Amino acid sequence: MPVELRLMRYVIEVAEAGGFEAAAERLHMTQPPLSRQIRDLERELGVELFHRRPTRLTEAGRVFVEEAREVLAAAERTVERTRRSAGVDHGAVRVGYTVTAAFDEMPKVFAAMRARHPGIRVEAREAWDAELTAAAEAGELDALLGRHLAVPAAWSSAVLRTEEFVVVVGAGHRLAGRARVGLRELRGETLRFFPRRFAPLYHDAVLAGLRATGEEPRIWENPLPGLRNLNLSLNNSGYMLLPRSLAGQLPGGIACLPLTDRLPPIELRLSWGRTPSPATTALVRTARRLAAREGWTTTAPDPPGTRPRRT
Length: 311
Hints:
Elements: H1 5-17, H2 20-26, H3 31-45, E1 50-51, E2 56-57, H4 59-85, E3 92-97, H5 105-116, E4 121-126, H6 129-137, E5 143-147, E6 156-163, E7 165-170, E8 190-193, H7 200-212, E9 218-221, H8 230-233, E10 238-243, E11 254-258, E12 266-272, H9 278-294
Parallel strand pairs: 3-4, 3-5, 8-9, 8-10
Antiparallel strand pairs: 1-2, 5-12, 6-12, 7-10, 7-11
Helix pairs in contact: 1-2, 1-4, 5-9
């Protein structure tokens, strides 16, 4: 019996998520129809793909997932080869990305583009927010990747990642050995930050989140800003706030502590121009698929033939 590719994706998602509810969130749907469609598939196949309570693959399910992954990979290769034969998979896309995206997200986006669209050249440019915004407005960039990054009017954007802030202190800080820390415990110490002119919206968003908790930090502007210079920026009485995903990318001698306070989460967005080229559209779709695969967001990939919605 033929099995729809959609149902194969559903089974794989449940297997990877470890449950129907988590898979439904990733697929941007509710759990009952997902459970029902997989149960109907099991009935048609005459086998159970999952043990329930807890959800785990049966032996037949493991075989199905293994084969389904190969079928879906072959289907994607067919689409990509067809596009390349028509001259669609070619050209270049100019991407500007911020300092906070340089360690994890941009390298993964670049690798995903090279794997899915080898005919498209990705021209990447790392810079501070203000410089990237000016370059985009001057028509020098096709897409922007960053957190709280100002983009030209009429550009579209999609959230690729949403996460919490963590406190970053030097290894010799009095709180460095703690499992978690509250902002109240940092009162009287200096927030070490980059000058506002480099990234105005990001700078303002961090301070607004702190002030919403009743905190009014004393700020020291780093004359040598950048995540690669943290050991020079932090001392035993200073701290920083950074997105959680950067915790594993920092140099030695740094401690990252989760917050007990609830600050507004920070979003990583990919933005692109009003009339994107085929190469830019390929970048957007690839980045959104990557975000779903990495578990950065619960947004499902765009169906074939659709464009990401404007946000």
